């Protein structure tokens, strides 16, 4: 139902610059066969690489490449599956970056990068792949803590490529923890948020409505309105420290318009 609604939304809005790709992860990757994601990634690889990335010649102070797109992965109920797909997307993009720098990862690893990610034998893995998996698993755990209260249930699989006995224990412990949090802790937090916002479905926030009416009545006594222009720009530092003479001319290019009243810079 949610998937149908999402697809219908995309169709109705005619988003020509958005490509939607459906993938039944649960069906395709039964038995933790995450290598079954590879055909999808290979299919999307030309598009992913065409999105490019930001590259700058720090010696000549010239921009060589700029990023043109993003890959957003939505799983209806599982960030862990999302992380598996995004991990492979990240590796494909990293491979493209290294090729731009003249480094052939396939030759360095002795096999293509996706095969290396799916290799379950640490003795046959390049040390970079081992480190990449560990970092990606740590990233998954931190993000998962925000939305579920526990680390990712497939951290062990991400790190080692397989689920052993201790991995199954870890999966079971986190699953039980999520069950407890979802049923005995999250509901109270959500109800508190709903009450504060006046959106609680089982009660009416009379106080919020009273305050809002009183504020509206006295609005002219303390508030005035005027039109203002706002300029919002994002600045990608590209993981390096800008020099003292860094040129910010392009950052504040108002394209012939009058200077705005407020400039917002997102880092």
Description:
The chain contains twelve helices and four strands. It has helices at 2-13, 25-28, 38-50, 79-100, 105-109, 113-118, 127-148, 155-160, 165-184, 186-196, 206-217, 219-222; strands at 55-57, 62-65, 230-234, 262-266. The strands form two sheets. The protein has a two-stranded antiparallel sheet with strand order 1-2. Strands 3-4 form a two-stranded parallel sheet. A hairpin with a 4-residue loop joins strand 1 (55-57) and strand 2. Helix 3 crosses helix 4.
What would a concise description of this structure say?
This protein is 51% helix and 6% strand. It is built from 12 helices and 4 strands. The protein starts with a helix and ends with a strand.
Q: How many DSSP-defined strands?
A: 4
The H-and-E topology, N to C, reads as HHHEEHHHHHHHHHEE
Sheet with most strands: strand arrangement: 1-2
Ranges where pLDDT stays below 50 over 5 or more residues in a row are none
Taking all Cα atoms into account, the compactness measure Rg is 24 Å
List keywords for this structure.
6% strand, 267 residues, 12 helices, globular, two-stranded parallel ribbon, two-stranded antiparallel ribbon, mainly alpha
Q: Which SSEs are present, and which pair or pack?
A:
Elements: H1 2-13, H2 25-28, H3 38-50, E1 55-57, E2 62-65, H4 79-100, H5 105-109, H6 113-118, H7 127-148, H8 155-160, H9 165-184, H10 186-196, H11 206-217, H12 219-222, E3 230-234, E4 262-266
Parallel strand pairs: 3-4
Antiparallel strand pairs: 1-2
């Amino acid at each position: 139902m949610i998937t149908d609604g999402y697809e219908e939304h995309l169709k109705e809005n005619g988003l020509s610059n958005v490509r939607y790709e459906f993938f039944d992860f649960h069906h395709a990757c039964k038995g933790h066969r995450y290598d079954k994601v590879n055909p999808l990634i290979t299919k999307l690889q030309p598009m992913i690489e065409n999105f490019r990335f930001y590259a700058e010649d720090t010696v000549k102070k010239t921009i060589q490449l700029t990023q043109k797109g993003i890959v957003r992965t939505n799983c209806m109920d599982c960030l862990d599956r999302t992380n598996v797909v995004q991990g492979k997307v990240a590796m494909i993009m990293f491979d493209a970056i290294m090729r731009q720098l003249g480094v052939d990862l396939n030759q360095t690893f002795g096999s293509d990068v996706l095969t290396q990610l799916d290799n379950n034998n640490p003795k046959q893995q390049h040390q970079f792949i081992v480190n990449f998996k560990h970092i990606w698993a740590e990233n998954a755990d931190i993000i998962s803590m925000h939305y579920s209260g526990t680390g990712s249930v497939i951290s062990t699989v991400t790190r080692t490529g397989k689920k052993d006995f201790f991995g199954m224990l870890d999966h079971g412990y986190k699953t039980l923890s999520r069950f407890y949090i979802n049923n005995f802790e999250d509901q109270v937090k959500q109800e508190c948020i709903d009450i504060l916002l006046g959106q609680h479905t089982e009660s009416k926030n009379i106080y919020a409505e009273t305050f809002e009416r009183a504020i509206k009545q006295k609005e002219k006594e303390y508030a005035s309105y005027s039109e203002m222009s706002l300029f919002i720009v994002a600045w990608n530092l590209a993981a390096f420290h800008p020099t003292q003479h860094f040129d910010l001319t392009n950052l504040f290019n108002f394209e012939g318009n009058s200077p705005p009243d407020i400039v917002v810079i997102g880092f």
